[in-house]
Amino acid sequence: MSELLTAALAHAARGWHVFPLRPDDKRPAFPDHTADQCTGRDPRCRTAGHVGWEARATTDPARIRRAWTHRPYGIGLACGPSLLVVVDLDRPKDNTTGPTGLDTLADLAATHGTVIEPTYTATTGGGGTHLYYQHPGDGPALRNTAGTLGPLVDTRAHGGYVVAAGSTVNGRPYRVDLDTDPAPLPGWLAALLAPAPLPPQRPVVMSLPTDRSGAYVRAAITREADRVTTAPAGERNRALYIAAVALGQLVAGGSLTEADASGVLEQAAASAGLGSVETARTIRSGLAAGARRPRQVAA
Questions:
Q1: Does residue 231 form part of some domain?
Q2: Shortest CA distance to 289 belongs to which of 3, 13, 39?
Q3: Of 164, 193, 222, which marks where a domain is finished?
Q4: Which of 150, 165, 193 is the last residue of a domain?
Q5: Co-location of 126 and 81 in the same domain
Q6: Do 59 and 153 have their domain in common?
Q7: Rg of the chain taking only CA atoms, in angstroms
Q8: At what angle do helices 276-291 and 236-252 cross, to 10 degrees?
Q9: What distance in Å separates the CA atoms of residue 106 and residue 113, rounded to the nearest whole number?
């Protein structure tokens, strides 16, 4: 058994969802296309629309063995499905001197009257540090951040992934530095990472006909909005894409305006806790994909 396969199985045994990265690289091996480039030729994308790396991440030993026996893939760890928040602490580039991300986080902890407590820790290929924490069981789903906490400090949570220990990137290994269970995310850190409250949402007002076609379109809108708001963590962005494809077909068929479809989807995404930038990109891609397959509703 290869060392990469052994490491991938060990991560999965902890309940962490893994997926293949390109060998010696940070980029996902699958899928080999973005949502707006999806043609449905990928077997995983044929029935339910585009399936990204997060939805493909797994803890199934049989699937893991099949993948890592095939090629020496790196190991990606999907933070959202794994219920993890990983704090990524970098070092200054080009060996320059100055505070590291670890220094920044330690100073931030000190301002809250505490220190960085031990948790599962990995050293990255670039000499940085990954601190693994349990995602809070209550409250909103935390998302990725870049520099929000301070210089050289990023975080990965729902919608994000990290290169897991056992992998290499450009020949440089990722190694376990402290092998222990991830500690609960400290309350002070969770508070700093909590998303801002959503602004008041105005209902989307649509002028739909009162005949059978209007009733069909209203039912379709409700169904697709519910698809997004009821999707489990880690599946919400994919659910939004599928909903956008469905409504995009109605837009292309002339039964719904693009503005109305976008408005409904934006509200559903906001209710599900998706970020505005991610939401806009996914809706745009889904509507464009749906427009290639117009669907007309009989009156």
A1: yes
A2: 39
A3: 193
A4: 193
A5: yes
A6: yes
A7: 21
A8: 40
A9: 11
Q: What pLDDT shows up at residue 177?
A: 97
Helix (H, G, I), strand (E, B) or coil at 58: strand
Within this chain, do residues 245 and 143 fall inside the same structural domain, yes or no? no
Do 87 and 173 lie in a common domain? yes
For position 201, what pLDDT does the model report? 63
The answer for residues whose C-beta is within 8 angstroms of residue 58's C-beta and 6 or more apart is: 12, 17, 18, 19, 64
Which structural domain, as residue segments, surrounds residue 76? Answer: 3-193
Does one domain contain both 188 and 243? no
Question: Measured between alpha carbons, how far is 268 from 288 in angstroms, rounded to an integer?
Answer: 19
DSSP run (H or E) holding 263: helix 258-271
Does this model's pTM top 0.90? My answer is no
Three-point CA angle 298, 262, 256, nearest 5°: 15
Tokens at residue 255, please? 């039964």
| 174 shares its domain with 60 | yes
**Do 232 and 149 have their domain in common?**
no
pLDDT by residue (tens digit) across 251-289?
998 888 998 899 899 988 888 877 777 788 889 888 988
Q: pLDDT tens digits, residue range 72-130?
A: 999 999 999 999 999 999 999 876 778 999 999 999 999 999 999 999 999 999 999 99
SS3 275: coil
The two structure tokens encoding residue 161 = 């992934």
